[in-house]
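Issue 218. Parser rejects a valid record. Input:
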Amino acid sequence: MNSPPAHPQRPEATAGHYENFPVASWLCPPRLRAPITAIYGFARTADDIADEGDASPTQRLADLAAYRADLDAIAQGLPPSARWAGVFGPLHAALRTHALPVPLLADLLGAFMQDVEKTRDGAGYADRAELLDYCRRSANPVGRLLLHLYGVHDQAALAQSDAICTALQLINFWQDLSVDIPRGRHYLNAQDRAAHGVPLADLCARRSTPQTIELIAASADWSSATMQKGMQLVHRLPGRAGWELRLVVQGGLRILDRIAAQGYTTLQSRPTLRRRDWVVMLWRAAVM
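Output the parser choked on:
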């Protein structure tokens, strides 16, 4: 492409993002910190391309296509372009050293492209099944990539990982309503909106009503139930990796606590974790 990139390309640019959950923290096995950081840098930069700045949807899609071309290049052992060298250099090393499954990385890019297309078209999600299909590509690949690094490949563990990752993605949706809706991102699906009598206009205006509160509460309950399906995975991962996952799970559940504590009014404000929340998370992780 001839136009200059409109988004950050350096992995260190990801550090400015607020994160609910630890990424490559001290709990992570040291030998895996580099590939995990490479995976998150790849995903976060792609997310920035799809979401940050003032680029047009057409430009975003073109940038994501160029990003995908660089992924295809390193998967074939070819050098990427210079544009995102800080992302694809470490990712290439991780691919070579750990044989990361490239289709999972490609799924992430497909989800980001879908986000742009949904925003451009003004279309939300029709029902929970369609939203879960999006989560299958936007969130679940990250968990599966981590399990690959930990050497865990059985179907039961993969299903539990998918449940955790889907739950975390859903929780992030309900946490970020006040941020996503002004951007044209609508994750409260049409079927659930109709069931609770919530017109799209109320969401676009970020108008808190008894109906929107019930809708967000029901969505939060769905996320919690989804998380429960995967929580036993924490006992499958040894040592520090297992503790890392416990904190990830408890971080998601604590955000649900925060959403409930503010009366499910996330159309107006975004709850975040505070220092004292980590004490609660550590205690809950210890008794899991």
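Fixed in the parser; the record now loads. The longest helix spans residues 239-261.
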